[in-house]
Amino acid sequence: MSENILEMQNVTTCVNEGTSEEKEILKNISLNVKRGDFITLLGTNGAGKSTLLNVINGSLSPRSGSLKIAGNDVTKLSVVKRARFISQVFQDPKAGTAPRMTVAENLLLAKRRGQKRRLKLRGLNNALPEFSELTKKLPNGLSERLNTFTGDLSGGQRQTLSFLMATMGNPEILLLDEHTAALDPKTSQQLMELTQNTIEEKQLTCIMITHHLKDALKYGNRMIILNDGKIVLDKSGKEKDNLTEDEILKFFTN
Amino acid sequence: MTLIVSAIGQGLIWGLLGIGLFITFRILNFPDMTVEGTFPFGAAVCVSAITHGLGPAEATLLAFFAGLLTGLVTGLLYTKLHIPILLSGILVMTGIYSVNLRVLGKATVGLLHKKTLFSCSFLTSLPENFPSVFVGTAFSVIVIILIALFLNTELGQSLIATGDNEKMALSQGINTNDMKILGLMISNGLIGLCGGIISQNNGYADVNMGIGTIVIGLAAIIIGEVAFGNLSLTVRLIAVVIGSILYRFVLLIVLKLGFGTNDFKLISALVLAICLSLPLFEKKFKTSIILKKGVERP
User: Fold this and answer.
1) Where is the signal peptide (chain A) (predicted)?
2) Among the four A118, A220, B198, B298, which has the fewest Cβ within 10 Å?
3) CATH number of the domain within which B235 lies
């Protein structure tokens, strides 16, 4: 088993390819992520943070470069094929759940993430005890709402559900794209704590985009700052712990 | 009385078309125009099969497969060639017109003195119009049970998720393109089946019998929803069939008011437009509150 769960080699992406508006977003990025890394990813708007996540999850294919997940070359694999390795929580609470399906039905979909869906009864009732156990540990009372349509949940409840769905199958890589940004401060705090605890408990590998410098400093064992499509800072362990807000802010003035 | 029984019978059989359309319009969340080509295709294939000596059961099954095929073509145009769904449907619907003429050999083919689903001795012993009620009920019950079961499978749940939130479905590893093709095939299969049964009930197939069928299907769905509200999926399938029957009653009333059958398409479009705009009126004028008050006041 390779120690690097993710190996990104010389990845370049660009928009409006072949036109006069052509612009490189990620510029020759190479990045290795070790199993168990919890990376906080910072950068100004347009620095390429979301593009980086999109390259990893497969919704964007790079112009050049290659990508390996758990030793497998996935450069050519689609989002659907990569779902076996990767799960993601989006910024928009609406993006991660199916609104006209119940909480339990959504969880059932997530339970089979990346597996083949067969012409076999879904077995919702058998899974209910497991789901109520899973949701009991969560804030904002999801366990009493297993049969509620997710469209009727609050943003915080939906995002908590999205997070549970993303982590319940122990993904090789968990991608968080400002997953607390749309929530009120208290709910956001709760979800961040849940995130921290879950990642620690399950020893997940995670890349988290955030705009909160305090969160970026407080959580994770490694910090990466992107600027103009390049990695301008990559610190882990002790070096990361010793970083201060002022030092980070320097990378944002351009 | 016979008129009412006839309306119920027609409503039950046309309900199959409503259920088919429900799968694309409500579950996958897009309008599929293929319907207008699939319906006469099912009818043409069925009638042609019977006139060529096939049994009515096999002919009806062929009509279902004919529908599966048109759904597959629309699905491939939409997902593989990235043609917008409305246009994909219109292309197939237009193209199939020529195919229908080829299959039938001429514009209209009758089934006089041929054996159909409706000519078994049990059905012919029933009073007038009851055969279609019997056949319609049998098919509706079977189709609703099968579709409800399917929607509760892993595959069915993936289909629902695809229509509900495609981004989420993709990130869960669901191949949403395959699901769209599958949904279009099942939907059009049922519509082809409906065309086959209707042609046997009418005793003929006509290349123009598809015109306006999408409105009939949508009317069944919308009237069912207006009448019964938002319910669980299985109950909503039943509501579509009941909506289809209610729609026939509306046509019956229109006929009694002195309009001719030639006015049906205009009336159908009006009924659908009114039903579709009900939510807006509800919001603007709080009609349900006004109605309630009207009832409460002596």
Assistant:
1) none
2) B298
3) 1.10.3470
